[in-house]
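Lab notebook, design round three. We kept the backbone fixed and only want residue identities now. Task for the bench partner: fill in a sequence for the structure below.
Input structure tokens:
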């Protein structure tokens, strides 16, 4: 699914209202698991799927490297709409 398709589905499915905006993490569309129910809306990603995306995109990246990359790059606070990466149980 492309980023545009994903955003369109969020609006069409009623997850976002016309006045809502949302910040996406580039390249992790396959790891999306939802949208926050609180305002401002935040995109929610599955941490483990995001790690798998990194490893799939670069076969030389091992599990430890992928986890370190995700940990480092998902801790940046870019405002109230910073995407959320959840470690599912």
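Proposed sequence:
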């Amino acid at each position: 699914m492309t980023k545009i398709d994903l955003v369109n589905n969020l609006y069409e499915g009623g997850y976002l209202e016309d006045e809502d905006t949302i910040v996406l993490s580039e390249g992790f569309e396959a790891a999306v698991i939802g949208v926050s129910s609180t305002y401002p809306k935040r995109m929610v990603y599955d941490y483990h799927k995001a790690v798998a995306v990194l490893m799939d995109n670069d076969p030389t990246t091992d599990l430890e490297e992928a986890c370190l990359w995700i940990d480092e790059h998902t801790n940046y606070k870019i405002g109230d709409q910073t995407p959320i990466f959840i470690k599912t149980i």
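Keep this in mind before ordering anything: The chain is about 35% helix and 10% strand.
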